Amino acid sequence: MILSAGSELGPWTVDHVDPDKMKVFAEVLADPNPIHLDPQAVIDAGLGDRVINQGPASFGYVLNMLYEAAPHAAIRDLNVRLTANVFGGDRITVAGTIESVDEIEGERRASCRVWVDVEGGRRALQGTATLVLPVE
């Protein structure tokens, strides 16, 4: 697939954000925040009634989508912000679009918009990524 301005990236989906994986991720990140582990902590914080996925996991979802959409490209940078929570059990869709492709310092760089949407309407993450595309 030739990637150019206007190309769509993804979608890449997670059908069920697994709360058990959040526990593993919390250990890897050394993140003891109880909102990732205990639904009662989420309730007590007034944030809902299901555990909340770690933000870096959403970054990883974007990276997975980019690797799948452009397997021969290198990811130069990722600049994102979290805009809503992803809860245990949510179904998410990760996607993006290529805004432009430019020759910069001898490389073909694709400037992309990227996002993570939760089924039901929340946009949980949005931002940009730069891909270095292989020479065609």
3D structure, described in words:
The structure is a single chain. The protein is of the alpha+beta class. The chain has helices at residues 19-29, 39-44, 55-69, and strands spanning 8-14, 74-82, 92-104, 107-118, 122-133. The protein has one domain: Thiol Ester Dehydrase, Chain A (Roll). It is built from three helices and five strands; from the N terminus they run βαααββββ. The protein has a five-stranded antiparallel beta sheet, with helices on one face. The longest helix is centred in the middle third of the chain and has 15 residues, at 55-69. It is elongated and about 55 Å long.
Outline of this structure?
This protein is of the alpha+beta class and 136 residues long. The protein has helices spanning 19-29, 39-44, 55-69; strands at 8-14, 74-82, 92-104, 107-118, 122-133. The relative contact order is 0.24.
Secondary-structure class: alpha+beta
How much of the sequence lies in strands comes to: 35-45%
Please describe the biggest sheet, giving its number of strands, its sense, and whether it closes into a barrel: 5 strands, antiparallel
CATH topology: Thiol Ester Dehydrase, Chain A
DSSP helical segment count: 3
Q: Would you identify the CATH H-level superfamily?
A: Hotdog Thioesterase
CATH level 1 name: Alpha Beta
Second rung of CATH, namely the architecture: Roll
Provide the helix percentage: 10-25%
Unreliably modeled segments: none
Count the strands? 5
Order of helices and strands: EHHHEEEE
Question: Any idea what the shape is?
Answer: elongated
End-to-end separation in angstroms reads 11 Å
How many domains? The number is 1
Order of neighbouring strands in the sheet with most strands: 1-3-4-5-2
Mean pLDDT: 94
